[in-house]
Amino acid sequence: MAGIIIREAFFPGRAPIEAYGNGGFRFADMSHRGSLLCLPSGIHGWEPADANALAESDFERVFAEAGAVELLLVGCGPDLRRLPPALTGSLKAAGIACESMSTGAAVRTYNVLLAEERAVAAALIAVD
């Protein structure tokens, strides 16, 4: 008997976030526990759980899709946090504007911009 296979969380499409809280998110009639990275290529499970520890390496997938993303919304948990200047500089150099805000505000803004078919991405840290 084979053991449990743990696969990377991935939804191949764009979908609005239906709900957030309790350490996760609901979208496309599914739920995900943990943080999310919503990109044009799909919605990925995302490791970061602390906005104070975000690094450029956490955004490799965003940089890989730079041509398809004009704006990145970063949901920093329950409160607004400033992103490291080196990170925002690297995103700007890649042609991606970046806005940090609370996760709730980022979810709401992402949903509006997604409905407007804008080139938006979101990096959302889960909140309880």
From TrEMBL:
Q: Which residues form the signal peptide?
A: none
Q: Which SUPFAM superfamilies match?
A: MTH938-like
A Pfam family matched in the record: DUF498
The record's listing under InterPro entries reads: MTH938-like_sf, NDUFAF3/AAMDC
Q: What is this protein called?
A: Mth938-like domain-containing protein
The organism encoding this protein is: Aquamicrobium soli
